[in-house]
Amino acid sequence: MTWLRFAAVLAFFLFVPAAGGALSAQETEPAESAFPLPDGIDRGEVLAEASRRHAAWRGFDELEYAQMSRLGIRLVRGKHIEFYTDLDESKEVDSIPAVLDEAVGQLALFFGLSPDLYKDWHIEAFLISDREPFEIFGAMKRAPDFAHGYALESRIWIYDQKQAYYNRFLLLHELTHAFMNRTFGDLNPRWYSEGIADYLALHRWDGKKLTLGIYPDNPDEVPGFGRIDRIKKAGRGKNRKTLDDVLDFEADDFLDNDSYAWSWSLVTLLFHSPRYARAAAAIPYLMMRSDANRLFLEMLGDDRVRLNRDWYEWIASIDYAADFTSFARDDLPSRPLSDPIELTLSPKEPGWRSTGIRLEAGKTYILRVEGRFKVYENDFDRSLPCEASGISLRYFAGAPLGQVTAAVPPSGPRSVNPWKGAVPLRNGVVRLTPDVTGPLFFRFNIPSGETKKSSGSLTVTLSPER
Ligand SMILES: [Zn+2]
Q1: Cα(71) to centroid of ligand 1, in Å?
Q2: How far apart are CA 456 and CA 422, in angstroms?
Q3: pTM, entire model
Q4: pLDDT tens by residue, 11-40
């Protein structure tokens, strides 16, 4: 009874989101210190309750094996995976069981559990070109009408997407659901279970090595994925989702593909910042509770306000090859402005950066802006000279490339865009009258993946208007 060992045997691993977002896990100190759980939640009890729920699963009727070859269905056996398909033999299709087998061990490590616990775990995976033979085969008995893929108990189904990458992606997505449902007893909240299934399913596979949880450098690396392009379209428009919108997603919301994109975006942001990754890693242990979102937000504490800021920054500027360092950066300690001060701003730092200088609501400040810098464009391998107003020959995130903006964001409540009142700068004199009291922030409008090779600086002399 391997599963009962969940309650007693906990192998401890620390999940570390590695640079670039790839999955890595290493054996280290007890997981209690890696990602604490809210008071009253016990790891062992959660896993044991999930095992009790598993014991009550209905299971599936035996498949019509005698009819299998007549129906044109073939079976490829892996270690954990029995893989059924009506697609012709090919290197890509027939490597799927090996990919999913490898993924099982990696999922265990990601969730801080020993792969040994899964040594007897079996999944039946169906990659379907034509549903009808699978109906006769008895493989679809408890499967609903689904659009792309579905997971139920120990079965996962997907329809052939005619793209090897996207087939593997969808199977890994459904495998993650099956793994989490088995391990953590449920799949709530939905934003998290869908978001993390997408997050982990985004992979690299070179025929030998599998890497889950990648962040793509370009669309060609992840054919069929498309989530980044969806958010690029919607991240600044009126269809933009607030954090609360995403947290409140229900099962029906996922009839709309955009909901996957929003959920993936949020999970990706969480796991790419040490500020949020620990609380995010605790959520699986809350999945059987109806108040999982509340407990998650409580775990974030004061970082909730920051998460709202980072969310709006992330969805407004999302792109391939993103650099996440701005989400890990701490704000500078706050201090008042008494005398004029000269600030040097570098385009190398992505995202909004705090100056720590506290401005007062309703007071007018003068910003004297000087200097030139260069924006490096990856696609063209060239540097474009630029002033504070940016270059209108290329737009990024709805504004000229390189444009520098200043803002004093409100410190709450959630679900209000804190960057809404940002003021665009230009070389010369700019006046700024903040609506709220708080620290001043600046941002260069440069895709985060293009900041490193940008150069030069801008000087801003800041003084109160007398
Ligand atoms: Zn799903």
Answers
A1: 28
A2: 23
A3: 0.91
A4: 333 343 333 333 333 333 344 447 899 999
